[in-house]
Design a protein that fits this description.
The complex is a heterodimer of chains A (135) and B (418). With 135 residues, chain A is of the alpha+beta class. Chain A is built from 5 helices and 6 strands; from the N terminus they run E-H-H-E-E-E-E-H-E-H-H. In chain A, the strands form 2 sheets. A 4-stranded antiparallel beta sheet of chain A has the order 2-5-1-6. Chain A has a two-stranded antiparallel ribbon with strand order 3-4. In chain A, helix 2 packs antiparallel against helix 3. The longest helix of chain A is centred in the N-terminal third of the chain and has 20 residues. The termini of chain A are far apart. With 418 residues, chain B is mainly alpha-helical. The chains are: A alpha+beta (135), B mainly alpha (418). Chains A and B meet through helix 1, strand 4 and helix 5 of A and helix 1, helix 11, helix 13 and helix 14 of B.
């Protein structure tokens, strides 16, 4: 079964990490993921820019473009994983392993109804900063 | 530091502006607010490793800080007995919702006020920066002294003096009106940018010590944008510091010499920071309310988007400097425009643009440096040599002098060859 693992944490805290702290957390997370990747259980993974970079389109007639994230919450959605696990127990094990090296916040596990792997070219994934240039 | 303590440290750092801002509103006295916060932090260090950090660290610190300061007052006036330590640290679950009710509405103005008191116009820029680092960011006096390369005692004295000055200035504690709020925001944005440039314009010798200033300015700009998420100029400010800071690793070579933008190894630029900066300026420009920070960020964005110097969109950069000149006229901006002009229309036009700036910029390193470079391109070598000599005499850092020296050497080599 496919699951999305949504990563929530206090953005204020995460963006107060020093560069070294940040690098260490990312390296520790990568170590945890290694085994799951090798087992073919982990798919696309993303770390989101802070919510200050977010824009929300509120549907309607006409639709409204609003600066900021959809929901103002104590913890913010900062990233996500797509995983292919046997059952909820296995996903929660994955989350516990991640949480052990990245304290604070929460993981929300959401089973998927539908997933399309899409058609992103490799270079869009490798160098997003060149592709998302302003007009 | 164990990972536990590092985590608590980050949570306290993140919560500091909101907590000290709220405590300042309660006590209307900076020293009392800071002491209350310190006390709350000590209790957090005892309490959080055991119970884990609370979900809302700022509210916890505000309530515990406020209670401990009030207890302190009661103690000194011997009115009531102190509650035990345990009773205070256990309050969090009951009191967090109350703290939220108390502070939710004030959150933005509290932080803005805290930052604004550091921007007192009578304080010289370096003192504003030192105060902001101490009061808003919570750096220790020792850390700030290291940044400014002075002794701890000297910095302590400076900060005390600056605090004395702002204590006399009466900052109103009522919620500000819309106009006042936007005036405060403008002053605070300028202060944040000062923190950044103080770190960024440092020469190689001091760059290491001052690097924390750039990180801190980025954090403060991010905080401001969280408070004012729909202000395009605040988006521009954060984009600007991110895009400039992204080039940090490429700015000096192994020997500590400054590397010109066009000679920098662009693979050393920080792609993540550039990505975020580009996203922000894109978002800001949709508002169609241009301002100086957005324009400067847009210029930085054009440099960041060029994978090689040849791909730089100089006509667009020249136009943007023109727009910036119209918003905030200054000879230094004209000088910057001239550099773009030289790429688009040639050194002759660029030289014509900066010659009239002589009276204003005669004591300015970059004016003589740019003038020398334009003259050199025009083949007027003797005049170029004179301009470079003046530039070297005015260089602020060894790196600046070395850069001019290399151009003089090139002139000399040419003269020999010719």
């Amino acid at each position: 079964m496919l699951y999305a693992v949504l990563c929530y944490n206090s953005e204020d805290t995460v963006f107060s990490w020093s560069a070294e702290q940040d690098a260490k957390v990312m390296a520790d997370l990568a170590k945890v993921q290694e085994r799951w990747l090798a087992a073919g259980k982990v798919g696309p993974t993303a770390r989101l820019m802070p919510t200050s970079a977010a824009t929300t389109l509120r549907k309607g007639d006409p639709p409204m473009v609003i600066d900021g994230p959809f929901a103002e919450t104590k913890e913010q959605l900062l990233g996500f994983y797509l995983v292919n696990c046997d059952d909820l127990e296995e996903v929660l094990t994955f989350c516990k392993e991640l949480g052990a090296v990245n304290p604070g916040g929460a993981y929300e596990v959401r089973p998927l109804h539908f997933f399309n792997n899409g058609a992103l070219p490799a270079d869009a994934v490798a160098a997003p900063q060149r592709e998302s240039a302003p007009a | 530091m164990s990972s536990d303590l590092a985590w608590i440290d980050a949570a306290i750092t993140a919560a500091r502006p909101q907590a000290v801002g709220a405590l300042l509103r309660y006590f209307r006295d900076l020293d009392t607010a800071e002491e209350a916060f310190q006390e709350a932090c000590l209790r957090a260090l005892r309490n959080w490793p055991e119970k884990g950090p609370p979900r809302d660290a700022a509210s916890w610190l505000i309530m515990v800080g406020r209670n401990s300061a009030l207890d302190g007052k009661r103690k000194t006036s011997r009115l009531t007995e102190l509650p035990s330590e345990e009773a205070i640290t256990d309050l969090e679950d009951v009191e967090t919702p109350m703290a939220e009710r108390l502070d939710g509405a004030h959150y933005r103005d509290d932080i803005l006020r805290l930052m604004f008191i550091c921007c007192h116009p009578e304080l010289p820029a370096t003192q504003q920066i030192a105060l902001a680092l101490r009061i808003v960011s919570g750096l220790t006096v020792k850390q700030i002294a290291r940044v400014f390369l002075v002794s701890e005692a000297a910095m302590e004295q400076r900060i005390t003096r600056a605090k004395g000055r702002i204590a006399k200035a009466e900052v109103p504690f009522e919620a500000p009106g819309a106009i006042e709020r936007s005036e405060r925001l403008a002053a605070v944005m300028y202060m944040v940018y000062l923190v950044f440039t103080e770190g960024y314009t440092a020469g190689f010798e001091t760059a290491q010590a001052r690097a924390p200033l750039c990180d801190e300015a980025t954090r403060l700009a991010r905080l401001l944008l969280r408070l004012f998420p729909t202000e395009p100029e605040v988006m521009g400010l954060l984009a600007l510091v991110l895009l400039q800071h992204a080039r940090t690793k490429a700015r000096f070579d192994a020997d500590g010499n400054a590397v010109l933008l066009e000679d920098q190894d662009r693979t050393l630029w920080d792609g993540q920071a550039i990505g975020e900066g580009l996203a922000l300026i894109d978002k800001a420009m949709r508002h169609r309310k241009p301002g100086p920070y957005q324009v400067q960020a847009a210029i930085a964005a054009l440099h960041a988007r060029a994978e090689t110097p040849d791909e730089t969109d100089w006509p667009q950069i020249e136009a943007l400097y023109g727009a910036l000149e119209a918003m905030t006229p200054s000879p230094v901006i004209t000088l910057n425009r001239a550099v773009a002009t030289s790429k688009v229309k040639g050194p002759g036009e660029a030289l014509a643009l900066i010659e009239p700036l002589g009276p204003a910029l005669d004591g300015y390193f970059y004016w003589h440096g740019a003038r020398g470079a334009f003259l050199l391109q025009l083949g007027r070598n003797a005049e170029a040599r004179e301009a470079f000599d003046r530039a070297i005499a005015l260089a602020n850092t060894a790196a600046e002098a070395a850069h001019i020296r290399s151009q003089i050497d090139r002139l000399a080599a040419e003269a020999k060859a010719g």
